[in-house]
Amino acid sequence: MAQRIKKFYQEQGIWILFILPALLVYLAFMAAPLFDSMRLSFYTGKGYTPTEFVGFQNYIDLFTNPIWRERFLGALKNTAIFFAIHMTVQNSLGLFFANLLSAEFKGRNFFRTVIFAPATLSVLVTGFLWTLILNPHWGAINQTLKAIGLDTWAKPWLGDKNLALPTISLTSVWQWVGMPTVLFLAGLLGISDEILEAARVDGASNWHIFWKIKLPLIKPVIGVVAILTFVDNFNAFDVIYAMAGAKGEPGYSTDLLATFFYRTGIAGEHPIGIPNMGMGAAIATITFVILMTGVLLWLYSSRANEDVA
Amino acid sequence: MSRIQKAFTYLALSIWSLIAIFPIWTLIINSFKPQKEIFSNPFGLPQNFTLEGYKAVWLKGNFGTYFLNTIYVTVISLALIVFFGSLAAYALAKWHSKTSTALYVFFIAGLMIPIRLGTIDLVRIMQMLSLQDTIWSLIPVYVAMGMPISIFILTAFVNTLPKEMFDATKVDGASEWRVYLQIVVPLLRPAIATVAIFNMMKIWNDFWFPLVFIRAEKSRTIALGVSLLFGQYRTDWTRALSTLSLAAIPILLLYILLSREFIKGLTAGAIKG
Description:
heterodimer, A: mainly alpha, two-stranded antiparallel sheet, 2 strands, B: mainly alpha, MetI-like fold, 13 helices, globular
């Protein structure tokens, strides 16, 4: 027996010891809280110990009870719009810049460094900074528009219900566009020169080369960028908190799933100020299910693509 | 490239570079101007140079405490992430069994799951451990959050190292622990740098967990401090801009010095190590 234990230790035990610290902290502070949050979503009760089991009632309330329904569906819709703007504007810009940067010319690294720079700042800082820039009184943006004679374009960017969400989304695009740029650039630089040379010899135009050769070849990178954009933005909080507050002002028009989650489960809604942790957990669980659905679809489709190739 | 192509490339990239730099430039130069000048001369260099904003933020605003707290939290978390992560990565790369594959998959699954979704339970855990309102509530969460990406990058890196390297030392009777310390860690250095930068940015800039766990003045981090000071100084623009600059400048300087490593680090996970 002692010998077997010794043998096991020599062969495997040492590895388990090596993995143990990482595993324990990951289990205790990431995996377990995630799963326990799911369990809590079936409970209700005020404060830190939701004790009353209510089955799916929290979920049913979110989808049907008018008190919750409006806020929940609003947050869901706004999150989808927030994501869609990143997906289209940020990633197309990123692809565009990456394609320009993939050629050889002087100053290429400089441009790459500059385009990426905002991504190093804290989201909170850029959010606050842009509220100042977009401020209707000082508002560098509005001053500039007025200076070039576009007075009518000077708008209360963050005060208008229809403008606030697109405006905040675009400031976030401003900050993060360096990410897809660098990822696409790595993909484009990975394409062998021979293929591109051969296409040029055949007389293909740059436009044609981009759409028919480069784009299909960087399909895996497009997938990675898409899934990263999805996960990051379905979970966004800081930029809204900084620019529109925890309530997604004006009039909840910029309320995202994360701000809704924060108000409901953690801060507690005004005027009561007591968090409803069970309901918060239900919102987190729904977000989790949405994210997992997206990730699994991506994994499935990228695997299907591999099989074809 | 043809001439027209070249001109177009420079033009397009220059326009965006201006858009990228302009807000940061306005932030920094205006933080050195008195309120009046911020409005009268928003884009030029300061004519009435002042450090009033910085003085107020640093002396009255306790920014020094926030700064130190953030450094403690970041440094301790990073040290633990790198240590736990590299230890586990070495084991996962070398140990071939069903258990190790399952564990690897379990760690990697965390790459796509934001830890924030477990916040409700983490709040309860911190209450139970009486860690709420201290910087110690942040560290275990950040270490857990850093495990998936670190294990992903470091395991991939260990797998690229030639196997003979470890085997040869085994014959000499070196224990796995010594192999780890004397051979694996030095070889892993470039991958460790990537892991460290990736996690450093996440931790340094994190606002969510300080917001949720911490209220006490003495335990605030920069992000939390900035949000409170900014609210307080909303009408005093010199101070508001100084607050934001103090939070932004250290990272920007580091980025200018190490931009290549930063870009590599921040996009890590999507492009392997």
